[in-house]
Amino acid sequence: MQIKLNNIRFRHGKPKKREKIDPSSLILKGLDLTIESGSKVAIAGLSGSGKSTFLQLIKGFTQPTEGIVELDGINPHLDKRLELFDQIGYVFQYPEHQLFAPTVAEDVGFGLRHAKLTALEKETKIRQALEAVGMQDSVFSQRSPLELSGGEKRRVAIAGVLVLEPKVLLLDEPTAGLDMSSRIALFELLKNLNEEQGTTVIWVSHQLEEILEHAPRMLALHQGVFVADGAPEEQLASESLRSLFGWEEPPALTLRRWLYENHGIDISRPWLVEEMAKACQSILVRNVPCPQAVI
Ligand SMILES: Nc1ncnc2c1ncn2[C@@H]1O[C@H](COP(=O)(O)OP(=O)(O)OP(=O)(O)O)[C@@H](O)[C@H]1O
After folding, report:
1. From the CA of 54, how far away is ligand 1's center (Å)?
2. b/e per residue, 55-83, with b = 16+ CB within 10 A?
3. What is the pLDDT of residue 178?
4. If you measure from the C-alpha of residue 45 to the centroid of ligand 1, how many angstroms do you get, rounded to a whole number?
5. Share in percent of the chain as helix, strand, coil (round to 5)
6. Reduced to 3 states, what is the DSSP secondary structure of residue 224?
7. 171 lies in the same domain as 227
8. Pocket of ligand 1, beta carbon within 6 A
9. 54 with 28: CB under 8 angstroms?
10. Residues 36 and 160 in one domain
11. Which of 249, 268, 284 is the last residue of a domain?
């Protein structure tokens, strides 16, 4: 599903008839962009810059004050095609706080309650969604969500979105509060969904290393305007952009730049630690000190 934003301006509250909108009241101030079907995009930006609002507009939770959001060339609000928003899955920040059913299976299957499917078909979909997030149906389906670990709860919540087989997956800071192995498992899942099923994945993150590793495209939102759009390694190489956000250069990028500038070694994406370490090792045997930032 292609997502197109045409001059989106947004502020909370419906404007009165003929009201001239005060630009300082706007949260989003003129967003123009296209996200092609099957893309993987990370949204970065400081707290309060409008990242969640941007996701909510795509999902149709809220309507733009001005401008149009098009899904596959259709304006769902104007063309009365609100069912298009059902093809978009939304994973809230800390979605595990919204688990409420007595069992994992019931929670994951909640979104299917009105679907015209047999009980067996529903069970199969629930099992597949749980398996997609690395949870065995036989182990977890009858347990109470309350007795799961934080990472397991998060996976159950994501399974509850995946069970609806969305074409687009929006995730608001999906790795917040997760340990390293849960983060790795989550990105493996997103990679598989994106590459094998062509699911468009758009996620908000404050973690530059995570963006650098997993996002071919990064959008950086500053005070309601996208000030960067492109490959994160290129965007994050800009000192002026980093200083606008108060970001440090991620160590992987420092090391990659150092390898290239000093030794002509061009490590291409993905920047596997092993590959970088091997390159460093080959230099260290020649007694060249590594940059301080990466030691
Ligand atoms: N219901 C609301 N009414 C009025 N203002 C709101 C409402 N919800 C959010 N805001 C304001 O809109 C702005 C953007 O909020 P948003 O949640 O989109 O930011 P964000 O970039 O996702 O922040 P964070 O990284 O902290 O989650 C903030 O200034 C926030 O206070």
Report:
1. 10
2. bbbbbbeeebbebebbbeebebeeeeeee
3. 81
4. 12
5. 45, 20, 40
6. coil
7. yes
8. 12, 27, 45, 47-53
9. yes
10. yes
11. 249
The C-alpha atoms of residue 70 and residue 219 are separated, in whole angstroms, by: 18
Write down the ipTM of this complex: 0.96
Q: 92 CA to middle of ligand 1, Å?
A: 14
Shared domain for 241 and 259, answered yes or no, is no
Same domain, 115 and 151: yes
Residue range(s) defining the domain that contains residue 257? 250-295
Grouping H, G, I as helix, E, B as strand and the rest as coil, residue 33 is strand
What is the CATH number for 27? Answer: 3.40.50.300
For atom 30 of ligand 1, the residue with the nearest CA is 48
Q: For residue 86, give the amino acid letter.
A: D
- C-alpha atoms less than 13 angstroms from C-alpha of 118 in its C-beta half-sphere: 3
The ligand 1 atom at the shortest distance from the C-alpha of residue 56 is: 18
Instruction: For residues 210-229, give the mean pLDDT.
Output: 94
CA of 49, closest atom in ligand 1: 21
Give 48 Cα–ligand 1 centroid separation in angstroms.
5
- Let me know whether 226 and 279 are in one domain: no
Same domain, 157 and 292: no
Ligand 1 midpoint to CA 147 (Å): 32
Structural domains of the chain, count = 2
Ligand 1 centroid to Cα of residue 144, in Å, is 32
In a shared domain, residues 211 and 221:
yes
Ligand 1: residue whose CA is nearest its atom 2: 12
pLDDT, one tens digit per residue, over 64-108 is: 999 999 999 999 998 889 999 999 999 998 888 888 899 999 999
Whether residues 239 and 255 share a domain: the answer is no
Q: Among 51, 205, 211, name the best residue to mutate to test ligand 1's pocket (greatest count of ligand atoms within 8 A of Cβ).
A: 51
For the segment 34-69, what is each residue's pLDDT rounded down to a tens digit? 999 999 999 999 999 999 999 999 999 999 999 999
